[in-house]
Design brief:
mainly alpha, two-stranded parallel sheet, 5 helices, 62% helix, 10% strand
Amino acid sequence: MNTNWNRNIEEEIKKFWKENYIYEKWILKNEKNKRYIFLEGPPYTTGSPHMGHAYNRTIKDIVLRYYQKKGFNVWNQAGFDMHGLPIEVKVEENMKIRDKREIEKLVLINLLKNALILHMDQ
């Protein structure tokens, strides 16, 4: 397979889409129709991407394209829920925190340090 041939075609298609605002037209085509709202969370908050992420992303893409083709005004927004508990556990492991009370001590110590620094600057 000639990979240069494939790249050339891809570049031509990208150029055509950009020059003719194809993506913008596709998005605006259903602007006045009933909305389909899709909020998705961040995909890799607790580790590296794996095949499960690819599978999940493919399913989401299929669903969004389906509703777009059915005439819905699709609104796709990446979410910001960072799946608190898994992240909290990883941070605690990284900081070698064994007990929730240690977090309270760390926060209190940092608050006191900052208050002292502010007071000394005045």
